Structures are given as C-alpha cells and as structure tokens.
Amino acid sequence: MNTLYLEYLKLKKKTRNWLGPILVFILIMIAYPLTVEFLQKDLEQGFFSLLWISMLLSMMLATEDIFLEDFNDGSLEQILISTSSFPILIAKKIFIYWAMIGIPISLFSFLFSLSITKDLQVSLLIMPLSMLCTYIFLNLFVFGSALSLNKGSVLGAIITMPIALPVLIVLGKSVIAIQFGINYLEFLLLLLGGLSIIITAVPFIVSYVIKAHLE
Amino acid sequence: MMNNQSLIIAEKIAYKINDKKLFHNLSFYVNKGEALHICGSNGSGKSTLIRIILGITSQTKGNFNYGNTKKICYLGHKNALKSYLSVADNLMLLDLDDHIELDPYLKKLELKELLDITVANLSFGQQKKLALLRIFLNDSDLIILDEPFVGLDKKTLDLVIDFLAKELDAKKGIIYTSHIHCEIESKILNLE
Fold first, then answer.
1. Average pLDDT in the A109-122 region?
2. Across the interface, which of B74, B78, B85 has its CB nearest the CB of A13?
3. Which residue of A has its CA nearest to B82?
4. Do B95 and A1 form a contact (C-beta atoms < 8 A)?
5. Which residue of B has its CA nearest to A71?
6. pLDDT, position A22
7. Chain A window 49-88: which residues touch B at a Cβ cutoff of 8 Å?
8. Angstrom distance (rounded) from CA B184 to CA B37
9. What's the CA gap between B171 and B32, in Å, rounded?
10. What range does the domain containing A106 cover?
11. Which pLDDT tens digit goes with each residue over B96-136?
C-alpha cells in the first residue's frame, strides 16, 4: 500500500491535527482587522507581517505532536526494523502535512491578502511565497518536534524558531519587492533553493534524532 | 560458528545503563527451526535485550551476526495500532488487508465482525489479537516476541502456541520473552 496514502488516511482521521492549525490561521486573519483602526492604509501596513507570523504559528501548531503518537504506540519501532527507508517515510509524512495544512493555508492567505489589499496582482504573487514558506516552516518545526519528542513541543519550537527567522526576513523583503514593483523572483528562487536543501536534509536529520530518542 | 542454518549469533553481548551492568558476556545463537526463550525477573533486561537484537538499542559491547535473517517480525509491549482508526484501516496500515490468509485468521480471532469498529473501542484482548495478525501473517525468517501471551484468552493462547510450533516446523526462528508458561520447545537464556 502506498505510504503516502496511508499517511493521508492517518492525518485525515485526526481532524484536530489538520483542521486546528487552519482554523487558528483563519481566526488570526479575521481578528486582525478588528484590532486596528478601520482604515485601509492602516490595515495594509502590518498585514503581511501578520500573515507570515500567523503561518509560522500555524505550522508550529501543525507539527506539535507529529511523531508523538507513532512514538507512543510503538509504530516508530516497527518502522525502524522494517526494510522501508525511514527518511523517505518522514519526507512523505511532511509532504502530506503540507498538502493538507500548508496548501489550504496558502489558499486562504491569497483570499485574505485580496480582501485586505484589494490588489489581485499582489495577492497572486503572495501565493507561491506562502506555498514555499509553509513547506519550509513545516520542515523546520518537524525537526524541532523530533528534537523534543516526548519532552513537550514547546522546547522544540523554541529551538527551531531562530532557524525560521532568516526565512521571515526574506519574506519581508519579498513583500517590499512586490509592493515596489521590483523583481521578486530572486527572493522566490532564494526560498526555493533553501527549501530544496531543507527537504533533502531534514528527513535524514529527523530520522537520526528519532533513532536516538528510541535508543 | 555461522552456517547456512544460522539466523542470529550473538557474541559476548554486554549492556550497561547508568553504570549498572544489566548483562555482560552474553552469547547465544538461534538456528532455523529453533526457539529461544529469554527468561528473567522484572528489570533483568529481557526487553532491552530484545531491543538490542532488533537494532533499536545499541549494545555496550559484543556483536551480532544476522546470518540468514532477511526479515524480522516483531511484536512488543506496544501494539503499534492506531486507536482512532477502524480495524480494517489498521489492517491496511499493516499491509495485511489483501493477505490471502487474512480471512481465516479474522474468523479464528473473532475479529471478522469488528472490521468497522474503531480500535479504541476494542478491549485490550481484542487489540492484542489484532496486533497478533502481524505475527500470524508474517513472511519473515525470525519472529521476535516480547510477552506475546499477556491479555490473551485460553483459546487465543492455544492458537498462538500452535501457530508458533508450525512456524518452527517451517524452519523459522523465534525469540521470545514470557512469564506465562507455554508449550513451545525452546532453548532457555536466563538473564538472572
């Protein structure tokens, strides 16, 4: 049976795990206009910063106990002794989380961006950035979650947060580039390059960390 | 000495945790068609030894030779079942849903009628039976079991023992720990 489908099946049944982060993201986005003065200029000013930080928090929430259940019920031990590749399984798991949480959040980011900025061009350019950054954040927080497996997720999040800061800086610069009509493709490629390194390295690092935990 | 019958050979295995020697100089082997019963009181290191054999935990000293073992089937204290999924979904996760012998075993274990039930709603014994399907439908050379008989009724216990005896006849190897007496012809490895 295709492990991608099995990971999808597992996550689909855990409604709290995939719906929770999406709802948190939506709630923050809805709450934002209520907390600032209702002027279009004021709304736009801090919107993108809030957008990236909400994504960061949602992804952190999504990966909170990504391995905990498998650790507690003995599935990780079974995977370790099986002939299948552990890093590939981790990569597939992260991909499914991205497909079920990261992509919907990216789509919502387009809608919220459109509703706040009223600029279709800008909102369309935000979409690929959102897609990339959710995938990067997921990978980083999966690493954090693996580090603090069975020791509480806060520790992992604290450890991982500084690694995510450069991504936030690039995202901020990308938005400025979009708003000033400068070529933002370079920032997109920079994120894509970072993502390609992260998605290759994280599954191996995480599998090593989990093995150490099981030992 | 390794030969074409050897499934596993352990040489001078030692394990130390927090400066406490759990066991040392432990040597044993399991050939095809042989069972090894690891005995010992609570805390003597039975489960740790099983984890070392499986490669999950590293031994402090010594080495293993896995000779003719290509695949290992393991059932430990944890059943590796997803409590929020149905029995049928768990069978799919275990990759047993289209196994040719699944149906007879589901009937024998009285799980046939429970396929749509969520595992969380099964009793401990029923969950154990579901986990045992991993063993009954295995295609491995070496079966490793950590307290496999806990929580089983007499009928299922007999079924497991009969099955393990047949597996030995089929030239598979078995390593197990158990505090419950069972009629499996085994070599004894005492960790006391």
1. 89
2. B85
3. A73
4. yes
5. B80
6. 96
7. 69, 72-75, 77-78, 80-81, 83
8. 9
9. 5
10. 2-214
11. 888 888 888 888 888 888 889 999 999 988 898 899 888 88
